[in-house]
Amino acid sequence: MIDRTGRVICDLTVSADGYSAGLDQTEERPFGDDGGDGSGDKLHAWMFDTPDENRAEVDQMTAAAAFIMGRNMFGPVRGAWDRRWNGWWGGNPPFHAPVFVLTHHAREPQPMDGGTTYYFVTDGVAAALARARAAAGGGEVSVHGGATTINQYLAAGLIDELRLHIVPFTLGAGTRLFEGVPPLRLEQVTSRSASLVTHVTYRVLS
């Protein structure tokens, strides 16, 4: 029986054709070729070029009581696993809560400044969700990406709400949301257009 204590939500920025990252992702280019300089500047310009216009959505992305992310969202594997690497998010990540990182590479928990602690989970999506729910204490759990991780949770029927930030250009290839996910019924809850992005929230019905 699936434990439904607290909502499981996800936030993801995607191109108009559904890609959350382009091809050729590297340590220097975490979002691959997105038509900008590879740092995600084009795909995520709405966060940084017009922050006041999108303040509510930016704040909402880090408001959960616990987070789950894939290993690529945390950072690249250097060799087998470099324990000196603390992720893309710097010394004071924006989460300020427990973050459960899905990986095949075991590692001790990594506390960071500001209240974020990374926990590395090697036994799958269900185990990560169970640990995140326990840490959240009935609060929201956010599956924070990337698309490959979100797809696993969608395919397993474990996402309650899908918050997409859709930018008006296409990538044509890369890491795509809904890849390998069975057909879903979605109910649109909210939609708001801004100058660089459209924010759409869906409730996942099945």
Automatic annotation (TrEMBL):
GO terms for biological process: riboflavin biosynthetic process. It comes from Streptomyces iranensis. Pfam families: RibD_C (PF01872). This is Bifunctional deaminase-reductase domain protein. GO terms for molecular function: 5-amino-6-(5-phosphoribosylamino)uracil reductase activity. It comes from the Bacteria. Residues 8-193 form the Bacterial bifunctional deaminase-reductase C-terminal domain.
